[in-house]
Amino acid sequence: MNLLYFAWVRQKIGKSEEQLTPPVEDVASLIAHLKNLGPNYADAFADLSRIRVAVNQRHAGLDVKLGPQDEVAFFPPVTGG
Amino acid sequence: MNLLYFAWVRQKIGKSEEQLTPPVEDVASLIAHLKNLGPNYADAFADLSRIRVAVNQRHAGLDVKLGPQDEVAFFPPVTGG
Amino acid sequence: MQTRIRIQREDFDLNREVADLTANGEAGAVSSFTGHVRKEGNLSTLTLEHYPHMTEAEIARLVAEAGTRWPLTGVTVVHRVGSLKPGDRIVLVAVASQHRHAAFQACEFLMDYLKTQAPFWKEEARGEQHHWVEHRNSDDDAAKRWGS
Amino acid sequence: MQTRIRIQREDFDLNREVADLTANGEAGAVSSFTGHVRKEGNLSTLTLEHYPHMTEAEIARLVAEAGTRWPLTGVTVVHRVGSLKPGDRIVLVAVASQHRHAAFQACEFLMDYLKTQAPFWKEEARGEQHHWVEHRNSDDDAAKRWGS
Fold this sequence. Notes:
The complex is a heterotetramer, with two copies of chain A and two copies of chain C. By secondary structure, chain A is of the alpha+beta class. Chain A has one domain: Ubiquitin-like (UB roll). In chain A, 27% of the residues lie in helices and 23% in strands. Chain A has helices spanning 7-13, 27-35, 39-44, and strands spanning 2-5, 17-19, 52-55, 58-60, 71-75. A five-stranded mixed β-sheet of chain A has the order 2-1-5-3-4. The two termini of chain C are 22 Å apart. In chain C, a hairpin with a 2-residue loop joins strand 7 (120-126) and strand 8 (129-132). Chain C is 34% helix and 37% strand. Chain C is globular and about 50 Å long. In chain C, the strands form two sheets. Chain C has a four-stranded mixed β-sheet with strand order 1-4-6-2, with helices on both faces. In chain C, strands 5-3-7-8 form a four-stranded antiparallel β-sheet, with no helix packed on it. Chain C has a single domain, classed as Molybdopterin biosynthesis MoaE subunit (Aldehyde Oxidoreductase, domain 3), CATH 3.90.1170. At the C-D interface, helix 1, strand 2 and helix 3 of C face helix 1, strand 2 and helix 3 of D.
């Protein structure tokens, strides 16, 4: 699974990208898994109301199912334009 | 009174501007006066639904009073923009 | 509110006009409208005539009215006159505001009223034929949306 | 419908972008929106980050959606990324149509959804302080106006 982090999620976790093959089946369980990887992850995911998710480059909810080939991105609500 | 004509009103009358001191008191009576000045005027003012008026450079109705110093313009509905 | 109104034969520079509107740094949003001569059939020339002085005064009134309806930092209106070719630009209305919705609304308001109030007339040349463009009732309807 | 979407560090040329949109001569109306970095207090730099590929795909979806709602002849979206200064231009959305109302509506629709859907993030530098710009709920409300 290819994980991407943007903006302050990237800064809190301390990296922009990583490859993991966690035993998870959806976005919610991936986040639960990540929060246990260390205090930086726990901090980044402390308030899920401030986190947005994209799976394979489309906006996605917590209930979206995940497979090993998926690209999952975590980021704050967007502020472009 | 300074009279101005624009677009096809100008073309039908055959001039863009003229000075007249007609014995009229409002826009309606000025038009009645002009229609008697010749077939070119009669043609220009044949269909008043296609004529717009400005008095002293502001859009005006047929009932607007006129004085000898006024500038009165006749033209078709506008098509700018 | 900074207001610039120009009636001119020459084309305009969009970059320059928008840069002038935002030079004071107050506006984050600029809504611009440009009208263009379409390429259609045998249309060869579009000639624009106007009523000097009244045009500027009428547009100034419309811009002032927009300024009372929305919080604007600047408005620029440039309208060309004279002989234009298919593909040429006819008009620019650019509105700057801190709020993009205000900028969009005011820009559309100004275009709608420009179409019904500003004393411009267009004559088309198609081959040997010349004819004056007819005013469109749909433009009156568009302007009426904004109330009086 | 002609669609151009570019994410770039460089500034853009408004004259060029509008000329490209109207080159085929179909459109008489172009509604353009430009977003600018405001000059405020001690703001020194605005840095824009984005999610490459998803950004372009997301904007392409929004443009396609606009094309189903309004009769458009072309849409150009240019969004800058990287380090910008007060006064710099951030984004251009330009929409061409035969009908000015369609052009205005589609341009505002695209800006509203760009603000809520396209994966860009802004970080401000003020003096020694850096902070990420917060998403505004008013932008969500603006996008909701258009229905889903």
